[in-house]
Prior knowledge:
There is one protein chain. With 193 residues, the chain is mostly loops. Helices cover 5% and strands 3% of the residues. The chain has one helix spanning 3-11, and strands at 161-163, 181-183. Strands 1-2 form a two-stranded parallel sheet.
Amino acid sequence: MNINTLLEHYRSGERNFCFACLQEANLRQVNLTGASLLGANLTGADLSLSILQQVNLTGAMLWRANLARASLVKTNFTQTLLIRGNLEQVDLSGALLTQTDLRLANLRYACLKGANLASASLCYADLTGVNLTGANLCNANFTGAILAGANLSNAILTGAILKQVDLEQAILQGTDLSRAKFIQTIGPSSESG
């Protein structure tokens, strides 16, 4: 399916675009609110500044995709591959990212308030200044991640792996760090603020 066909079908009311192949597609500034892109291949696609609220991207492939400054409120990214994705300044408030692969992703200054990232892989991701207030990060793997200046207030990090993580100036007020594993971590390490 090409981009023009997809947008034409969306405008006519269709929302099911499961398993669409949109590699390297230019979808910059599109509005696909409520669409289902379950299992879609969006490798290398440009979705920057797009509105993708309440979209189902379960199992989708977004390797090296550009989602910078997109609105992804309450979007479902369960078991999605976002390796090396650019998610700088995105709004992922209330999004579902369970078992999502965000290794080496750029999430600088993203808003993930109330998001569910249980069992997500955030290894070597850049989460500088990210807002994770009230997020569920149970069993998430942050090995090598940068969380400098991140707001983790009231977040749940039960069982999370924080190996070689930079937590300099991170806000941990009310954060649940029970059973979290701290190994060679920089910054706050065992007490919630």
